[in-house]
Every structure is written in C-alpha cells, then in structure tokens.
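Lab notebook page, bench 4
Experiment: in silico fold of construct C2
Operator: M.H.
Input chain length: 405 residues
Purpose: comparison with the prior construct
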Amino acid sequence: MTGCLTKKRVIISLRRYKSASDVLFCTGFFIYVVTLIMDLSMWTFAEDGGGNSTASAMKLIRYLAYAIMAVKIVYDFSVEYKNFKYLTVFAGVAGLALLTSKNTMIVFYFLVILAARGVSARMIISTALQAQGLTLSIAVLFSQIGLLVDYITDRSGRIRHFMGFQWATTSALIFLYMVFEYIYLKKGRINIPEFAIINIFSYYLYIMTDSRMSFLLVLASTLFFLAFGGVISKKRKPSFRRLFTWIIIAMPWIVAAASIYLHKIFIKGGSLDKLNVLLSNRLNYGHQAIDNYGISLLGKKMVWIGYGLNDTGKGTYNYVDCSYLRIAIEYGLIFLAMILFIYSLVIYKAYKNGRKDLVWITLFILLISVTESRLFNFAFNPFMLLAFSSLRKFEVTRKAQGSEV
C-alpha cells in the first residue's frame, strides 16, 4: 500500500514538471528554432533571390509554431502574470519600433517572449539545444557527403566553406550558442573529456569556415568553466559586494555604450586601425552606417546587405555586425534600452537564484554581440527568454520529487 502511494506521488510530481504550458511552449519553440535555422540553409536558397518550395513550407510550419505558442498563452490566461508590467512596456516599445522599422518580425518575437513566461528555464534551453543540434548536424553532415551544397568562397586568400548554410559564419555561431546552452544545463561544470570534444569540433568548424571569433569564444568560455565551473556552481547565497553586483547588472549598458562609441569615433588612419583590422573591418562598416543612416530614438526601415548568398546582387554592402549598433539604427535607442534592460533582468534573476554560471554565460554573450548580430535572435540565442521564464521551477520540482520518494 505504501509503495503504491509513493509511486502515485512521484507521478504527480512528474506531471507538475511536465506541465501542459511547458509542453506547449517547448513544442512550438522547437519547431520555431528548426524552421528559422532551415531558412538560413541551402535547402531554402534560390538563385533568383526568391523563395522555393522548401522555404514556403518552412514559413507555413513556422506559423504552426506561432499557433501552438498562442494556444499556450491562452491556456495560461487565468494565471497571474508576474512580469505583466514588463511585458506591457515591452509591447508598447515594440509597437513603436514596428511602426518605424516596418519589420514585422518584432510581432513574432513578442509572441515568443509572451509564451515563454513562466516556462522552466531549463526546458527552454534544452529545447533550443536539441533543435539547433538537429539542424546543425544534418546540415554539416549532408554538406560534406554531397547531399547539400557546400558553397566555398576565396576572398583575398581567405577560403571559407559555408557548410550547408547561406552564410559562412552560421554553423560556427550556432555551435557557439549550443556550447553556452550545454554549459548552462551542466550548471557551469564541464570536465576534460567534454572540453576536448567541444573544442575539437569547434576547431573543425574554424578550419572549414574561418570563423575566428566564434572559435576563440568557445575556447575561452570552455577554459573558464573547466577551471572555475566547480567554484561558481556551488550552492550558496551571492556574496558579492553591492557595488560590484550593480556593476555586473549594468554590464549590458556598459558594453553597448562602449561598442557604439568605438564605431562612432573610428577614423581611417587613426588609433583604432589595428583593432579594425582585427575585427575584419567591422568598425569601419559600423561608422559608415552611423554616417549614412544615423541613430534615432525610434529607428527606421533598413535593408541590410552582407556577404550571404541570398544578398548577392542586391546592392552595396552595408551590413552591421555589432548587435547594439544594428538595433540602435534599425529599431531605435528606446528599443535598444528595452533589450538591455531585459539582459540586466536576466543577470539579476541569475544572481537572485544563485546561478552564477548564467551570469558568466550572459557576459560572454554580451561580448560576442559586439561583433555579431544575434543578441536579439532566438533561433541562435534563447537566453534573453530567461528574463521571463522560471529559473527555479526545475530545481523546486526536483526537490519535491526527492522528498516525496
């Protein structure tokens, strides 16, 4: 009799962990991430710059993902929204950015954020890792055995394999965020075999794609967590001094201001020339974008043209890799401030819940966003969603299971 009661209690606990809300969101989010990454692959590439049948199918399937997440929002309608005031402000700012930038993707970003409210942070990151791992492994494998086009460029002696994607850097960037997600799921602790396997594959992508920054960030982050992961993952209350804590929480604003300022003051032949060369001319392109388009409070409609295969023949290169500058130009300073506030909220929640590993992962993401444009792109970077998720849900449920068993 006691055994039956114990078994029943464990099942009830498991049901609380895999709630309908979590399952609905993770199902929709998995489809969302897979289809967005597929949109960047050679499966959806068309020589004439238009779409093909696969691209159309991905778009339709992605609408299914939005519908599933909308059902999750409706399902939770009776639940008190703890972050409702933040979501209301975000909706207002996003609406203004939508009117000025004319980028309808903001509507869908907000839908995903709203759907992520209250979902287990661990499930969000785990879902993203699985979706990214599936699409990346298939694209890389198929491109190397001839089932998918592996486009190769040779620009000034710099040979780059696109590994089944429309951009040379895509595969390495996806892998970088997968490493961050894996470290988060491991609570900041990785061992030597994991370090070796991760960096062997990272080096392979570096040799093939020549994506230097992603390779260096993978190496730096895995070295850091290999050396200090066991220390920062110990369960204890945050013991940092108040001033240092506020500095860490302010890091999104500090990094954003510094990176935009560097682009603003860059002059050819000046003191920042060596840094510009190291960053593959990114400071120069950013400075030109500021001169040509300016930075406003509400942003403006932009068409970014880079070195991707889908950009061929569209016009003069004007791509801005710096996430902070890109958001400021296209969506405006008010919208950028909202994004920075959300990242500060992620850091604050991580401190509050004793997840110092998440704090450091967020700092690495802020750093890579100086030279990459995925700070606000959930297909690559799901960590922004943790501002509205539940960081404690998984741990509390596991404790409940242990006590009931």
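Observations: Strands lie at 152-155, 158-161. Confidence is low (pLDDT under 50) at residues 1-17, 394-405.
Next step: discuss at group meeting.
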